[in-house]
Amino acid sequence: MNSRQVVRFVLVQIKTSLCSICLLFCTFVVKMQKEQDNYQLLTQGPVRHVVIKMSVPTIISMMVTSLYNIADTYFVGQLNTQSTAAVGVVFSIMFFIQACGFFFGHGSGNYISRELGARRRDNAVKMASNGFFYSFLMGTAILVGGLIFLQPLSLLLGSTPTILPYTEQYMGIVLLGAPFLTSSLTLNNQLRFQGNANYAMYGIVAGAILNISLDPLFIFTFNLGIRGAALATIIGQFSSFLILFFMTRHRKNIGIHIKNFAPSWHSIKEIFFGGSPSLMRQGLACVATMSLNIAAGAYGDSTIAAMSIVNRISMLVLAAVIGLCQGFQPICGFCYGAGLYSRLREAFRFTLKLGTIFLLCVTVVGWLVSSSLIGLFRNDPEVIAIGVVAFRWQLCTYALCPFIIGSNMLAQTCRKPVRANILAASRQGLFFIPLIFTLPMFFGLLGVEMCQAVSDVLSFAVTIPIMIYTFKEFVREEVVRGTTVNQHTKQEEL
After folding, report:
1. Segment 254-274, tens digit of pLDDT
2. What angle, 0 to 180 degrees and rounded to 10, lies between the N-to-C axes of helices 178-193 and 226-247?
3. Rounded Cα distance, 150 and 156, in Å
4. Which of 5-9, 30-34, 245-249 shows the highest mean pLDDT?
5. Domain map of the chain by residue range?
6. pTM (two decimals)
7. Closest C-alpha to 62, from 246, 242, 326, 360
8. Nearest to 451 by CA among 253, 221, 289, 241
9. In this model, does residue 322 exceed pLDDT 90?
10. By three-state DSSP, how is residue 50 classified?
11. Which residues, in sequence order, are CB contacts of 425 under 8 Å at separation 6+?
């Protein structure tokens, strides 16, 4: 990429970004004129319509978030293999930071949706502020600790001696955005669980667009290299934070106020029950990425770079399914809180059907274009060869993921913490981490490339009996609730 191409690309990106941001805020102004009763929509609206309505903005948020993670990989990939690998190494700490944000966001959000479904808004209001301030404080702690132990942490994450300087440069800046990233994810999920996924989308998308626009400007035009990618990332995160905080103050959304911050064991317990599966899922994804980098490191920097690229692509693909399943969560929480079990089951089946069809299509297309897709990120024959094999292995099991992910989110939202944690741990923890160290012993590099696919098959097998038991439990709960309601009705008649 020569200087003229870079300048032209930057100008196009900036123009596109400004237009997109203007469009987003024009849409928001229009939406401000419309009010809807989320309770009525989520508990009485047509199931398919509601799932799609809740899912579309969430899918957009997830896809765009993945895109700006990929953007760093793409633009840094134009520099050298070591920089590409460094971004992949730091990605594991980003998983951990995101894990904390999702922990407080899902923990408080699940509670909020159930309480709103049960018509107990005061409890939901208090939990929103508690979840936000807990999250901001955790992000601050990560920032301080990460900067103090920057070099040991870089080595722990899987940096080789040649990658270490680039890792320290990138991570030293990225950590500055930790409090805003955790808080943004918390606010995003709280808005989403209230049934206001559109508002959540605006903040995430605007920040991501800004990040993608600034990447080529800082990396190439200002010659900041990998530091420019990190700087663009934290500016995008801070922008998302400000927009999402503003969105919480809009109309019927639950606003964040320091007066409502009242730490208690009850709030911590509820956040833990609702958020621990997310922490487990994202935290183990962090450990899994570290383990992958260590295992791949035995085969050279090209393997680390290739697996980093494949992970980013897979995250983008699965982001759509995760967004779909997260769009299911508000209707799941409201219906569970209101005792509408048949509606919950219908929404769950529709979500899985839609996600599976989508991933089957992706599998076919991805298999055909895998080589070109890997080559977009790093035009290195060795990186492409390794990446294609790894990507095709993952394509083989993509269709299993909607059931694994959707089941995890259902158990989490319905306050089944043990089952939710088992499901959250399976795909990238319970199976992946031991497999990434054992499979290479028997299959060499192929063991690294096939590891995620094998883990997905085993996770699918574990999910089936857990969900059979969960839906049988729903039948029993429905009977108990129905009996209780009938007793109250008879007492009122007397």
Report:
1. 888 888 888 888 888 889 887
2. 40
3. 10
4. 245-249
5. 3-28+43-493
6. 0.70
7. 326
8. 289
9. no
10. helix
11. 280, 281, 284
